Amino acid sequence: MTVSIGVVLFPGTNCELDVVYAVEQLGAHAEMLWHGDDTSKGVDAIVVPGGFAHGDYLRTGAIARFSPVMRAVAAHAEAGGPVVGICNGFQVLCEAHLLPGALQKNAGLRFVCETVELRVETTASVLTNLARAGDVLRIPINHFEGNYVCDERTLAALHADDRVVFRYVRNPNGSLDDIAGVCNERRNVVGLMPHPERASDTLLGSADGIVLLNSLLTAAADRATIAV
Amino acid sequence: MLSAAAPLGSIVGVPTFHAHIEVAHLPGIADPAGATVERALPALGYTNVSQVHIGKTIRLDVEAPDAEAALQQVKEMCERLLANPVIEAYEVTIS
To answer: Which residue of chain B comes nearest to A105, CA vs CA?
Structure first.
């Protein structure tokens, strides 16, 4: 059966079509989820894509967190469904407290736009179940506020539970402990600053994002099987 | 005569308070903007500057029965939206 991936669209989101293209290339069905509708339309997994939701006013993700669709996203996560936040989507999931910590301005106030090396730190997540721990992937980043921060207690918990999903090989933004992506305690919600959908074809310079997207599709398929 | 634009509160005599909110990084949380400015100031000859911190100021008016009620409500706004308690501290002054 074809798995369905919901792609959340806020005013100001701008990476939604890249995600739709990438997951459809891999055989999934993509369903747009408008921010004003409190429904996940029965999809198997949800991606909160990158951009500038609600103009990033006040703080990145601060306003988006209160969009009606976020109730559906939280309910999907609560039920164990896979949820992935990419870039601005990661910021939104942190503001919504679906993931720990926060993302603030890059060290040196530098906007970064480049392809970086990203190390997979754990395969126990909905975005890395087909990868291997230690794999180094070439994935683009494109952000001003990707500097991950959290308090010491949270960082200790992330380490103890093996919840740092990705680290930068060379830290581009000042992130605490080189963190590029984390997951929640149940490992069904993952957020990362790099854009795997932009590394989904060799024509784009790298196809290293495919293993991550296929991991998500696998988790979504497991979810679909359970739901049936 | 009451103006049509007057908020409901002023019709029934609920006073308006001015809230001044300072949002800053929590101690121990890096402040990249402050650190960058601290590095830039010496280039202008100000070599005697340290401890630069950059936050934000939010001002708003709120109708409430008294100053204490206004303070409590604005603090709640800070917890829920105006600040991110994960990385930011806030200070509310009501006048």
So the answer is: B32
Listed by start position, the domains of chain B span 10-94
pLDDT at residue A77, rounded to an integer: 97
Q: Is A197 part of the annotated catalytic residue set?
A: yes
Give the CATH number of domain B10-94: 3.30.1280.10
What distances in angstroms separate CA B71 from CA A67, A111, A222, B24, one per listed residue? 26, 37, 49, 18
Q: How far apart are the C-alpha atoms of A47 and A191, rounded to whole Å?
A: 10
Asked if A66 is an interface residue toward chain B (Cβ–Cβ < 8 A), one would say yes
For residue A149, which residues of chain B lie inside 8 Å, CB to CB?
Answer: 29-30, 87
Residue B71 to residue B65: CA distance in whole angstroms: 11
The pLDDT tens digits for A148-207 are 999 999 999 999 999 999 999 999 999 999 999 999 999 999 999 999 999 999 999 999
pLDDT in tens, B2-59: 445 555 555 568 999 999 999 999 988 889 999 999 999 999 999 999 999 999 999 9
A195 included as an active-site residue: yes
- What is the ipTM score, two decimals? 0.84
CA A216 – CA B70 distance, rounded (Å):
47
Smallest CA–CA distance, residue A154 to chain B, in Å, is: 10
Task: Residue A210: give its domain's CATH number.
Answer: 3.40.50.880
How many domains does chain A contain in total? 1
Boundaries of domain holding A151: 4-227
Interchain CB distance below 8 Å, A147 and B29 = no
Q: Round to whole Å and give the CA distance between A200 and A184.
A: 25
> A104 contacts in B (CB within 8 Å)?
29-30, 32, 87
Q: Enumerate chain B positions whose Cβ falls within 8 A of a Cβ in A.
A: 26, 28-30, 32-33, 35-36, 81-82, 84, 86-87
Which of A87, A94, A150, A183 does the annotation list as catalytic?
A: A87
d(CA A90, CA A46): 12
pTM: 0.91
